[in-house]
Amino acid sequence: MPSRILLAALGIEAVVFAAIAPNFATVANVFEVMRLSVEVGLLAVAMTPILVTGGIDLSVGAMMGLAAVIFGAAYRDWSLPIGMAAAAALLAGCGGGVLNAALISALDIPPLIVTLGSLSLFRGLAEGITHGATNYSGFPPTVLRIGQGYLWGIVPAQLPILLAIVLAYAIVLHRSVIGRAWYAIGFAASGARYAGIPVARRVGLAYVLSGLVSSLAAIVYVAHLGQARADAGTGYELDAITAVVLGGTSVFGGRGTIWGTLGGLFAIAVLQNGLHLAALPSELIGVLVGTLLIGTIAIDRMRRRSRALGGRLQEEDTIVRNSQVAVLCAAVIAGALIVAGTNVWLVRSIESNVRGAGAAVPASRRAHRPVVAVMPKAKGDPYFVSCRAGAEEAAQELGVDLIWDGPTSLDAAKQNELVENWITRGVDVIAVAVENRAAISTVLRKARERGIRVLTWDADAEPDARDFFVNQATAEGIANALTDEAARLLGGAGDFAIITGALTAANQNEWIAFIGKRVSEKHSGLKLATIRPSDDDRDKAFAETQTILKVYPSVKLMMAISAPAVPGAAEAVRQAGRSDVRVIGLSLPNINKPYVHAGVVQTVVLWNTRDLGYLTVYAGALAADRKLPAGTRAIEAGRLGAISIRGSEIVLGPPLLFNKENIDRFDF
Amino acid sequence: MRREWSVAIAIGALAAALALVAPSYFSAENLRDIFLVNMPVLVAAIGTTLVILTGEIDISVGSAFAVCSVAAGVAAKAGMPTALAGLTACAVGAAAGAVNGALVAYAGIPSIVVTLAAMVALRDGLRWTTQGAWIADLPPRFQWLGVAQSTFPVVAGLASGLLVVAFAWAMRNLAAGRAVYATGSNAQAARLASIDTAFVKLAVFTAGGALTGLAALLNSVRFNQIPSNTGIGLEMKVIAAVVVGGAAITGGRGTFTGTVLGVMLLGAIGPALTFFGVSAQWERALQGAIILAAVTVDAARAGLSRTALVGA
Amino acid sequence: MAGLLLEAAHITKTFAGVHALRGVSFDLAAGEVHALVGENGAGKSTFIKIVTGAESADSGTLTVAGRAIHRMDPPTARALGVAAIYQNPALFPGLTVAENIALPLDGGRAFGRVDWRARRRNASQILKQVGAAIDPDREVGRLSMPERQLVEIAKAIGANARILIMDEPTASLTEREIGGLLEVVRRLRAAGAGVIYISHKLEEIFAVADRVTVLRDGESIATRPRGQIERGELVRLMIGRELTTMYPKRVVPLGDVALELRGVSNRTRGVRQISLTVRRGEIVGVAGLVGSGRTELAETLFGLTPPDEGDILVNGAAAAIASPAHAIRLGIGYVPEDRQRHGVIPAMSIAANTTLSNLAAVSSRGLIDRAAERRASTKYVEELRIRTPSVLDAVEGLSGGNQQKVALARWLSIQPAVLILDEPTQGIDIAAKAEIHEIMERLAEAGVAILMISSELPELLAMADRIAVMRRGAIAGIVSRSDATPDRVMALALGHAA
Lengths: 668, 312, 498
Known about the structure:
The complex is a heterotrimer. Chain B is mainly alpha-helical. Chain B contains twelve helices and no strands. Chain B has a single domain, classed as ABC transporter involved in vitamin B12 uptake, BtuC (Orthogonal Bundle). Chain C is an alpha/beta fold. Chain C folds into two domains: 4-242, P-loop containing nucleotide triphosphate hydrolases (Rossmann fold, 3-Layer(aba) Sandwich); 244-494, 3-Layer(aba) Sandwich (Rossmann fold). Chain C is 34% helix and 26% strand. In chain C, strand 19, helix 16 (430-445) and strand 20 (449-453) form a beta-alpha-beta unit. In chain C, helix 4 packs across helix 5. Chain C is globular. Chain C starts with a strand and ends with a helix.
């Protein structure tokens, strides 16, 4: 059973969010919380017996990625029927589990080391199979229904899968001979051996099952997002472990229940959901989850200690000692402080919104100010940070409430989750910078059905999933601008190399495809020497560029197509003293100014991101007031003046080329 | 010492292959560049080695690295001299490490749980406060620690080399160092030998944090801006290097020679694969396979020698 | 009294209601070897724990070198020059021999410099004193058990102990090493140290001790100078009661041979050429010194370390026992010596512990029927009179005797053909002891073949139909109940012709 402290935390969360978050306490929202917990829930449930035996499995998230890719490849590339494809994915999961199990129980290598290695191996295989770039989609509707549909109009279709696995694991762990063996092994592996339990086999089984369940989670994930990519499930292992540990399972083995894990899972899910509904920033999640984790476990341990001092075991549930009362009080106070802290933050942020808007808006309208929710691809990305400034400017000017939130790092699943939460909260307009086209479209359609105006910006969803797309530049336009600029700088012929974001980044992969096309069509003198990933990490882009400069001395131009990669590549070129190598790329003016002025970076291609944010919110406000019907040909967008609309695309204008002459005029 | 030999042999094999296929790998500037890129990993790995030697683990290194980098940048921008900015970074790292260490040593919470919480909390906390903004316009004297770019590798090489040698020496020759080994080897026996094992754990986490801060400083001064999202995944790199270098995850066994070799092997593979012309998408799979192979061969050999020993 | 290093007077200690020590008095002079003898459970270990500060006495006084010590704790004990050598060495496996010897010495100064050369020199010097040829640079984790024992001794000697406590220091040493060790003890005595020497091996005691104190049931029965006591009397004092009335084993008609060993060897564990039969209803005792291979034989039979030679026949059929699960299927149960680590899983409930080895009996299609489990467990709890409020309580809350009954109960459920009991009554109180013995009898009557390993002679003499005496991994002789005397068994165990 989940500890009383965890239940108390869950209770406090529920009460607080019911008070401050719109539509938190509704049946539909409860089911939404559950839907979003399914994948991590599956992993966490399978992780529970592993922790019970005193082990750990860090490879589950990577296994999801591998299984997702195999599922996609089996269906799309090898043309297997969908059932066979699913079987292939499950088989891969089994195989991965067997590898872990063999190394852990046969060779007696610590699980932490084994699964750390297999984490890299599985994720690496997934990247290798897809070349990092392939993004499998176009799955049959039967599959998609599992991840996106509803049973009886309200129960998410994947929920029964989680329920089935939870029940199966609960039965095996709590009722079966095997589960008993897991506990015995966790408490005392040698004692279990003397009792005739086949320890190696039982431990191995937990890892094999974990691999299998991870691949099942991968199928649900694919069905949920409608796409299979090598980065599926990145970081999920830590989410799963957090849920399990929060649920009271000991990392030393022996103690823990499936019900506790469910408690931990929902404590995190409710927290995320509540914060989103209350329009509190996503960064709070990490901070609060960390606090919750340390808090519950510390309190639990203190209680155990005082109980151990108190003696007899069987009295634990009936006698409440003074020390326990004290500890519980401390817990309540700590919880209250956290809640109070968030409330203060909430109140302050609302106040600042109201203050900012108050001057421009007549009092009568303040009561029903439209709410425009805008989502970047990743919150911390400087590109999107610069968009936000424009968005806030427009919100103030027009007197709308702006919710600006998104995943803290690129994560398609988190985008869907946030849109779901906004639907539940009941905002007027949703504008999304789309990370994954197929994945987001389903949930955007749902938003439209509920009467919410939907815009996309920066990157588009399926056309029928949104009302308008605020288009700063097409992928082809960007690719062409970059390629033409490269050709100009190289004088029409020469080698160049590309530093991309993550290998799996969809946008970048699309640009690369168009760059290749442009090269073969118009600039046959150009030759692409290599493509290296930077994982959106400046330092990695730096190191990769250094290596490229040495391995491919003929490369005379670095094209970096991820915002942090341009200064990274530029710094590498500068430090190498290679004044014959030019650097261009897609990035922000501010972080590149030193290099542009130093003549290392010739051209940065981008649009005015501040204007993009401004235009998005401006269009959103118009849509909220029903002043943006389909077929509108042009709008008057405040300080931007007249903006034309092509079809359903609101076009910001052509990309800007920043260079020595003009870059100081931009500040973002 | 056996694992160190396996790693050394692996490095030798890699070097031999490179000498055949891509001799330019051994150009002075390439070696210098690879060294500078891996120097922060090495410095952080010293701290993680300490932590792992006591039988604990720290997976918050990457997040702490980012926090320390930003702290160093903010301090430098506030006009502090570079030394003071570096001290700030180390102090911030040490403080984060001390909190982890206290929770592990005195509250008795497993280190993986504590540092997991620290990992998410520090990372998201930093995102919240910086809102993703980079620290730009660093004072010029901050870059390269105030020395010329060409002398920096010498300075940094000397500094990190000295650091490794100093730690290796201290861990071998100071009572405090031996207390770390003793704590990880047999905590019960260590307490019997009047070693305050809880304090030892607090100390290694604190020292690990300070070293993370130093790593962050050495990395930050190589650039003129500090991204706030730096250091993602650093903890895994560091732990893998330490473990490949032969340190036992259960504590009490491991050397700095091993850690240095582990960092060398893992740091050399990435660029080497590029020199070999392997495409980027297989890199991670190969790295995983190499880690697994290293620990498997070692475990299999240990198993063989164990039976041989008993049979004798 | 001048010259007394240690004086303990009227020490009492109670654990969970069981009197471990009831008024023990003991003293030790400088330049003296004072032997402490007694059966297992007589209170020797508890007494040592009190002297080293690991436990505190309930009452009584402790005087070290003329200073009354009110609160003894390990640091104080060390500071006073009290050092103990335990049966299970507390060493650092990852560190070298030299360091293991040195570490307890130079605690304190965190930034003190380690002088490796001095450490090594010191270590090899001490090791030479002990008569051990061990390279000080070797890693302790790679040493054999006797080598570790020697390092443990060297460690204590290195600490310049004035009061050295040796608890069965020779248990796993060879004759040559024992000779060297006794030489060390004599040298320490000559240097003015006091040695408390604990051993089951009476020959050693007669070889080195100046005085002997006998402990029995937590009381100091007698203290005699070496010249004023002879072997027979010492044994009598240790055992202290009429053997025949203490453990009555009723005569049970013996059935067919249930377990037969033909030349069973396990070279890696040091078990050599064991041939033995146990019949239904028979209790065969296994005597021998600690380290004579008794436990290793039991673990070989139970499949934990399968034999590499010889045949094992269970109920007349050859069985190649490969794992504990296999042994259990053949109807072999094993109550191991280390109850806490192997015999039970202390953190689990009584119900879970009693059914752990035969979950099939309380489950169908792999699912445990909790009601059936509780019923089965309750049955054993009543049958074995395990005193507990509920079968759902954790075993760790029970007394030693009740824990041992739980360990036994586990095997009742498999209806064993053969039951191997390793030190079944070690460290439990008299009443529980008698109960365990009665359970064994009932099992024998029901036709179970029992192999009982015990270090307690009286127990063996009273309970066993025959006693197989082991020495150095082999059977030194088998004595039948009617011929068995303490002297005869001891003689076989020690390797004297009787």
